[in-house]
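Hi V.,

You were right to ask for the full record rather than a summary. Here it is.
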Amino acid sequence: MALLKDTEREQLRQLVKACLLEISKLKIELKKSQNESTVSTETESIRIKAVQEEFNNHLIKKDEEIAQLHAVINEKEDKITELEKIKVNFEAIISRPKKDLTSFQSQIYLLLPYEEDTTENLYLKLKTIGFSELSNENFEHALRNLERKGYFISTPEGEKILWKKIDK
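Predicted structure:
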């Protein structure tokens, strides 16, 4: 019986040895897998960072494009506003004169704003619109005629005269 027990012990020892050998092989494989996993994770994080950087660069380019488009839109809106002013002035110039005014007087009446202003400022507004040949004396004479016909009122203020357009 003692002989049997030694054989069992020997088998058990060989079995333990085989298990220990298998465990050490598994440990080696586990370490390899962990190293590969770490390398894979690092590679994946590098890829993720590269994709994020590319995405951020793309966003920056798109933001620049949007800013350029906003600038173009603002420029176009300014041009549209300017063209609308020109359209209003053009329509005032080509419109039929009011029944008791000459064509020239009617144009002056329609082109000048309703805000109260000095003779000099009103004259400059007409000059910028395109009345380059209009003299200051002729303009003042036209304003006086418009006042006499009830289209403007004048208010002396010191040495200057303020003119206000009346809605008719």
